[in-house]
Each structure stands twice: as structure tokens, then as C-alpha cells.
Amino acid sequence: MKAQSMLLSALAAAPAALAHTVWTDFYVDGMPQGDGVAMRMNLDAAKASSPIASLDSDDMACNVGGTKGVSRVQPVKDGALLTFEIRAWPNDATKERLDDGHRGPCAVYLKKVDRATTDKAAGDGWFKIFDHGYNSETKRWCTDEIIDNDGLLSVHLPKGLEPGDYLARPELLALHNALNDDPQMYTGCAQIFLEGNGNLVPESTVSIPGYMKYGTPSTNFDIYNTPNSEYVLPGPPVAKLKPRGSQSASASTTQPDGQKPAGCIMENANWCGKEVPDYTDEKGCWASAEQCWTQMETCYTTSPPTGSAGCELWGEKCEGISDACKAKKFNGPPNKGKVLTPAKKQINPGSLMPTVGGGVATNAEASKTQMPAKTTADVSETQMPAKSTLTAELEESAKPTSVAPKPTVSDAYEAPISTITVAPSSANAPAPTEASCPKGWKCFVETHVEVVTETVYVTATMADGYRKRATVHQRRHLPRA
């Protein structure tokens, strides 16, 4: 575990990246779908928040491993508000979302597919529904807005789209090291089923990978010494839609698959726990306990980088059944059928960003604040974005709230001497990007190491005739064979 800081002795801040990020989850009209639910992301926890290694890779579509779908597909209404969330630590939304040195544009793409659970994502069929680059009026990048909105990016689905399965793909392009041929792309995909009876389709589509290349003005732009208002957004413009003459084969009004399984009483990302069988004797009690523990092991082994909080709650249920078996209470299971998934409460996603490129707004209507119907009184303290209460003020003043220094002479990024620090990470923390020092600058890297001791307890054979079999995550209680 590391906390790394860079001290810069220069008149401009060095383009050093200290923290990466990952698209972890999404909200529909302000309602959370759950961490990792219906989301394609890099499943390697140690590398989940790393940028895509190559702009020419199939990973550009939905991240590393993103050519393989997940089991869930979330239904959304025509014209719904989708809100995507980034985190530097995938399993901890309380920590930094993205180092504010990562400056650059963002966009959202859609792809109509026959089956969201099986489509390989890479290839043609993608069309853009939103983009935002550098706003010359506020002198802020899309990344600045996302950071100040607690890692949230919101966009309305175009109304009247054909119904059916789609992949919804947010992207963020960080340009802090673009001059070193290192534009850093962060992306992922949500699997959604669009409900409705529309017939609109894009006039044209692009291929991902293929729409973004190295060595172009969009990917090797110098944000430090070039007026940022000159930046040209990558990829196509926001798609124009047209009515389809006849409905496509994939324009289904009934969701084909990906629904939450029936009888699901506990969720963890795309895993669902189901109630164990009833029992009235000792043998049945331990059989149900065994089934419960087996489900828990599956939960842990399939957990994405967003964590295993649901598995821990499920483990408490299994522990309760095992304890009942030990106490010879053979009438169960306890709390039969009780839904254990914590209640999901609506959030305030903040204001929507206008479509902006090169400092010129092309969608003024999108800049209006659009909130979900529920009030903040219905929002839990832990789920409410900390900065969302400031959105009205931010929209009026357009003044940055980040503590990072902002340019005062021109819209090229310049800052006085500063220290950028990243807090110590959790167990699955992303590795920091190696800091780079521009020619002629003096850079100092200071690394702090925090030692954490983890103790694992294993209980040996018990005297009462039962044995505890330790697993990686919980203890299991089984009768002696």
C-alpha cells in the first residue's frame, strides 16, 4: 500500500498521473442498479482502474475482457437518464474518483445489439449520444466537471430509439501525458434493455476500435502549452437519428434475458443468492447449511473489483443456519425468504453537462439541471454525492470548486508549485502511474509505505462432534462424516 506525492520545482505542474479510475456502476433516473450490476469492466482487481493499453485493441470497446458479457441486463425507459460513476478504488466510493491532473474530454456511445449478454462489443455499430471537451467560457474540461460532481456523468438517452438490447459505453480520455504518445482511455459498458415503441436509428455508426488513432490532434494534444480551446474532440459528432423504414429483427419490445433471477434474496454485482431448502431434521439442516456456503463461495469467486459486500451479508445468513444446526434447532431456515439486499435509494445525480467541443456549446438545452422526481429527503446520507447540493450554484457561477490551481493568464493549463498527494489505498487499490518529468524540470518523487498485518484464524476439530472447515472468507459448519 502506497501513498505517493510529487513535489514540482517548476512554474507549471508536471503531467504526472498518480491515480487511475474505472467505470464501476450506473444509475437509471437516479436509482442505483448496484455496484457492478450489468457492467462490463476489467475483472482483474489489481488492474481494474488502469487505462486501456492500446487504442487499437478490442479492449477499447468495453475494457479488458469486455468482449464477454455479464449475466444481467437492466431495463430502462425511453429517454431515461443514465448516470455513470467512476472510482479510483473500485470497491470504495468514499475515496478519490480521479486525480485532477487527468484533464480531457468524455463521451457516451450506444450500440444496438441482438443480445447484450453475448455480443462481443468490438466492431461496427457504435454511435455517439453525448460528448464534452473543453469549455472555453468556464476554462474547464469534462474531467473537471465529473470530479466535482463526485465522479458522476449523466446523459439522457435520445427519445424514440428502437427498443431492444443496447451496450451503453461511457469514455474518458486523459491527456496529461498525451505528448508522450500516451493518451489514457478509460471505458466500460452497461448492458441495458430499452423499453418503448420508437423507431429511430442512427444515420451512421463507427467501429470501436477504429474511431480513435494515435498521432492525431485529439490524442497527442498539448494541454500545457496550447490554448485548450483549440482541442478537437475525437470520434464522430453526436449522431443524427432517423426513422427506420421497417423494424429491425433486434427491435424487441420484450426483454429476452438478463433479468434478475426469480427468488433472488441477495445481490452482489451479477450474482444472486437464493433461499435454501426447508428442513425439519439434523440431516436436512446441515444440507441446507452446505448449500448456503456453496452459494457464498460462488459469490466471492465471481465478485468483480467493485467488491463483495453482498457476499459478506450472505455469509452471515449461512453462519446463522450453521449455528441453528449446532443448537439442534432443526426447523428452518431462519427468516425464510427474507430479502437481504440493502434497499436502494435514489440519488441526486447533479446537473447535466452540455455537449461542448472546442469551447463552443452545441446543446444548450442539455445544460439545464434535470433532477429525479424524488427529493433529497428520500436519499440516504451514504449514497448522496457530497457535492451535489452545490450543483445549482455551480451551474450559475461556472466556477471550479477543485483545490487544484486554475489558469489565470490563458486557457492553457499552468499552475504554481504544488504538491499532489494520493491517500493510502485499500487492499485492491490501483497501482499509481509512473510519474514522468518534462524535460528541463526538476521532479522529486516521495513514496510512503504503510504496513498492514492481516490475521487468518482457522479452528481445528471441535469436541462436540462437528468440525469447522475454514474457507477463504468465512467459517463453515459441517457434521462429521
From TrEMBL:
Positions of region (Disordered): 240-261, 365-409
Enzyme Commission number, as recorded: 1.14.99.56
Protein name, per record: AA9 family lytic polysaccharide monooxygenase
Domain notes: Has a modular structure: an endo-beta-1,4-glucanase catalytic module at the N-terminus, a linker rich in serines and threonines, and a C-terminal carbohydrate-binding module (CBM).
Signal peptide: 1-19
InterPro entries (UniProt xref): AA9, AA9_LPMO
Cellular localization per UniProt: Secreted
Record field: compositional bias (Polar residues): 245-257, 365-391
